[in-house]
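Input structure tokens:
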């Protein structure tokens, strides 16, 4: 059975991937979507012309991975594309944020993404693609967004290393690194501090379209927009301590 899997498909960029992937793959038998809000996932079926299999569950718990593993094996799945989108951020200084929320970020953004990747890899073959949602926040340490930026630096590093490991099997890995994108992300993260950042907000549809194009071309990174491309270049040139200082000023810490 040819399938694509999208985590975090109930809103934002995950939902956009779920909507756009069936246009890219014409021979998919099913699209598997994962998130906690069942109603939102059910609504998706009205907009997608291929069968949707809903896994409503919390990726910070074991049972959902056990269920996915069971279904992959039972259906002799051939995963054409895995998109790990589920994630969240919390804006604020470390000493003032809830500890459970901060550790939860590492749990979902890093652990769950790694576990999903490991669970799916045995079901991928030549031509399969992995897309990992990192962030431009991965480019440098960010006072005021510290744990989130560190969790996304993990995703970026993990994706680059994985890409080298699986390339010989014909599997591609693309780390997506957008700047701010207009989604429900900020309802949970807290509002953007600076007006400049709000002005930089991209449209989820465009970011996802670019990510899929970059994945098809086998690119290891997808960075949307000129300003984020410039940030990437700067982060390669300037020392982390200077970048962290600049981020502290931008985030008004
Ligand atoms: N928006 C931005 O500015 C931005 C920029 C760069 C990178 N990103 C990254 O892009 C990814 C998608 O974010 P988005 O902007 O599309 O935000 P979003 O609209 O808030 O979507 C987050 C998705 O993650 C799912 N999710 C959250 N906790 C979960 C859990 N414990 N188990 C299963 N699913 C869970 C949510 O579904 P349920 O609530 O239904 O579970 C939702 O579908 C994230 O990894 C984020 O870090 C976002």
């Amino acid at each position: 059975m040819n399938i694509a899997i999208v985590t975090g498909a109930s809103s934002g960029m995950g939902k956009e991937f779920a909507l756009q992937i069936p246009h890219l793959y014409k021979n998919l038998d099913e699209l598997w979507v994962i998130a906690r809000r069942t109603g939102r996932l059910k609504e998706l079926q009205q907009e997608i012309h291929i069968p949707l299999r809903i896994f409503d569950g919390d990726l910070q718990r074991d049972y959902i991975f056990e269920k996915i593993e069971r279904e992959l094996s039972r259906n002799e799945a051939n995963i054409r594309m895995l998109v790990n989108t589920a994630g969240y951020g919390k804006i604020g200084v470390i000493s003032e944020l809830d500890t459970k929320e901060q550790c939860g970020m590492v749990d979902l953004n890093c652990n769950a993404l790694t576990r999903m990747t490991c669970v799916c890899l045995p079901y991928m073959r030549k031509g399969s693609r992995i897309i990992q949602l990192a962030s431009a926040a991965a480019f440098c340490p960010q006072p005021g967004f510290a744990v989130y930026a560190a969790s996304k630096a993990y995703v970026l590093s993990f994706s680059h290393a994985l890409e080298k490991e699986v390339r010989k099997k014909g599997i591609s890995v693309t780390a997506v690194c957008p700047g701010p994108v207009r989604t429900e992300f900020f309802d949970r993260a807290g509002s953007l501090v600076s007006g400049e950042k709000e002005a930089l907000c991209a449209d989820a549809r465009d970011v996802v379209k670019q990510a899929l194009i970059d994945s098809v071309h086998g690119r290891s990174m997808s960075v949307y927009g000129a300003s984020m491309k410039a940030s990437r270049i700067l982060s390669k040139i300037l020392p982390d301590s200077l970048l962290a200082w600049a981020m502290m000023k931008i985030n008004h810490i």
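Residues 8-14, 35-37, 40, 58-60, 85-89, 108, 133, 135, 178, 180-181, 183-185 surround NAP (CB under 6 Å). The two ends are 51 Å apart (CA to CA).
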